[in-house]
Structure formats: structure tokens, C-alpha cells
């Protein structure tokens, strides 16, 4: 999804946060400083290469990085193994995955597409789990296939690949973060 080329453009979720969610959070918490309430800091999308890392499947590595770039609109960074693990035939320095860190407008645009377009395309979707919080207000969720995003053409995918999405929320406990994400429209299971 391309961003319109206008100087006064702002993503829909950012506008919603500034005009609706932020005043509600300030009033509920009794704060006057807008920096004291929970807010999205960054969003990290990562995909592992799976057995391509150990078997040297160059095509799979290229496909994963290409799909991650298409989904996020940003070039991914290839991650390397930090140590060797003989049981997994893994050596230190091998390429094991790719990740993208989104901030600002791209973060809000990706979250909007995830909530409104991608998650409803998951078969038998009943909502995301509310158990993905890490104790510091950050939320982790897994997606089983990259084909739920409309940017990926399902008939041209050779390797179905899952991904991990981490939403980093600043100034929040798990409960405050859950409330913020619900206000954004993340469909949690009841």
C-alpha cells in the first residue's frame, strides 16, 4: 500500500490516536502530559528461514526477504546465528532470518492493514490471543502464512512461511497495553 504523496498526509490510525484515543487515555489516567500515557513505539516483523538456513536453499532466502519487503514496504535486515548448535546443524554466522523495524507512519499503516485486511483473511479466525504480552506491555503474535497479506500473490508462493509480529508499547503495563490495542481495533478473543 503506497503512501499518498502529499505533505499533509497522516495515517488513519495515527489520526485516531491523536484525536480520540489520546484524550480518552489522558482523562482516564488523570494525566496532563501526553507523553505519560501508553503509546506505540515500534513494530517489529520477523521471519525465519527455516531449513533453508542449514540446507543452503538460496531461493527460499530470497523469497522470504522479498515477501517481507513487499508486506512492510521497507527493506529487511538479515539476521545471523549468534552461536553454533550442532543438533540443528547451525553454525555461528549463518543466515537464519530477516526482520523489519517499523516506526512512525509506516508502523501505523502496517498495523491498520494487519487489523482491517490481513487478520480477517485468516481461515476460521476468532480473534488473536490476549496471552501474548511479555510483562512489560509489549505484545507478540504469530501469523502462520504470509499469504494473508494482499501484497503477496498466493499462486506464486513456493514456500509458505510464518512470521512473528511484535508491537512495542511505551509507558504501559500489560493491562494498559491490552486496552490501547483494543482501542486501535485489534480483535482479541473474548
Task: Describe the structure in your own words.
- The chain is of the alpha+beta class.
- It has a single domain, classed as Ribosomal protein L5 (50s Ribosomal Protein L5, Chain: A, 2-Layer Sandwich), CATH 3.30.1440.10.
- 33% of the residues lie in helices and 18% in strands.
- It is built from five helices and five strands, in the order H-E-H-H-E-E-H-E-E-H.
- The chain has helices at 12-29, 52-55, 58-72, 104-118, 174-184, and strands at residues 39-48, 77-80, 95-102, 139-143, 163-170.
- A five-stranded antiparallel beta sheet has the order 2-3-1-5-4.
- The model has no long low-confidence stretch (mean pLDDT 86).
List the helices and strands and how they pair.
Layout: H1 12-29, E1 39-48, H2 52-55, H3 58-72, E2 77-80, E3 95-102, H4 104-118, E4 139-143, E5 163-170, H5 174-184
Antiparallel strand pairs: 1-3, 1-5, 2-3, 4-5
Brief characterization of the structure:
The chain is an alpha+beta fold and 190 residues long.
Please supply descriptive tags for the structure shown above.
50s Ribosomal Protein L5, Chain: A; alpha+beta; globular; 190 residues; single chain
- Give the percentage of residues in beta strands: 15-25%
Level-1 CATH class name: Alpha Beta
CATH fold field value: 50s Ribosomal Protein L5, Chain: A
Q: Count the strands?
A: 5
Q: Biggest sheet: strands, sense, closure?
A: 5 strands, antiparallel
Order of helices and strands: HEHHEEHEEH
The CATH homologous superfamily is called Ribosomal protein L5
Strand order of the largest sheet: 2-3-1-5-4
Uncertain regions: pLDDT < 50 for 5+ in a row?
none
Class from secondary-structure proportions: alpha+beta
Rg from alpha-carbon coordinates: 18 Å
Tally of structural domains? 1
Q: Overall 3D geometry? A: globular
Number of helices: 5
> What's the helical proportion of residues?
25-40%
Distance between the termini: 31 Å
- Average the pLDDT over all residues and give the rounded result: 86
Which quaternary structure do these chains form? single chain
CATH architecture label: 2-Layer Sandwich
Amino acid at each position: 500500500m503506497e503512501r499518498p504523496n502529499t505533505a499533509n498526509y497522516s495515517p488513519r490510525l495515527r489520526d485516531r490516536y491523536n484525536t480520540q484515543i489520546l484524550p480518552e487515555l489522558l482523562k482516564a489516567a488523570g494525566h496532563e502530559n501526553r507523553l505519560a500515557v501508553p503509546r506505540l513505539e515500534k513494530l517489529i516483523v520477523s521471519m525465519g528461514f527455516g531449513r533453508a538456513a542449514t540446507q543452503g536453499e538460496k531461493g527460499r532466502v530470497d523469497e522470504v526477504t522479498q515477501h517481507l519487503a513487499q508486506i512492510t514496504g521497507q527493506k529487511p535486515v538479515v539476521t545471523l546465528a549468534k552461536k553454533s548448535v550442532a543438533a540443528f546443524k547451525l553454525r555461528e554466522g549463518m543466515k537464519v532470518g530477516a526482520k523489519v523495524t517499523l516506526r512512525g507512519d509506516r508502523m501505523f499503516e502496517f498495523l491498520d492493514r494487519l487489523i482491517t485486511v490481513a487478520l480477517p483473511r485468516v481461515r476460521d479466525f476468532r480473534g488473536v490471543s490476549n496471552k501474548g504480552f511479555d510483562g512489560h506491555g509489549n505484545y507478540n503474535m504469530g501469523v502462520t502464512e504470509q499469504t494473508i497479506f494482499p501484497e503477496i500473490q498466493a499462486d506464486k508462493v513456493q514456500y509458505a512461511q510464518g512470521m512473528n509480529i511484535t508491537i512495542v508499547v511505551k509507558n504501559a503495563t500489560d493491562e494498559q497495553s491490552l486496552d490501547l490495542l483494543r482501542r486501535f481495533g485489534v480483535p482479541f478473543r473474548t
